[in-house]
Amino acid sequence: MYLNTTLTYKLSYNQLVIVYCPEWCDTGFVIAQWKGSTFESETDYNGTFNEYVESFLPLDEDGCPCKL
After folding, report:
1. Which of 16, 7, 21 is nearest to 68 (CA)?
2. How far is CA 58 from CA 14, 16, 22, 46, in A?
């Protein structure tokens, strides 16, 4: 279940997530990292990626979806 971005305070620094960002790419989903105040992705070439994130799904250290 994808979570609203208002719940990012529950994420750990550098935690991996799948973000839903339909206006960012054709698939609408990107693997990203939570950097404490923004989501960052390797596909972000102009520093605007975080503005497109609508929701997120936290991942554990094995890359499996997890609860916060």
Report:
1. 7
2. 11, 6, 18, 24
Task: Provide the 10 A C-beta neighbour count for residue 17.
Answer: 23
DSSP assignments along 26-49, one per residue: SSSEEEEEE-SSSEE-TT-SSS-G
Q: What is the pTM of this model?
A: 0.92
Residue 29: beta bridge partners?
A: 20
In sign, the C-alpha dihedral spanning 15, 46, 28, 26 is negative
pLDDT one digit per residue (tens) for the chain, 68 residues? 899 999 999 999 999 999 999 999 999 999 999 999 999 999 999 999 999 999 999 999 999 999 98
Give SS3 for 13: coil
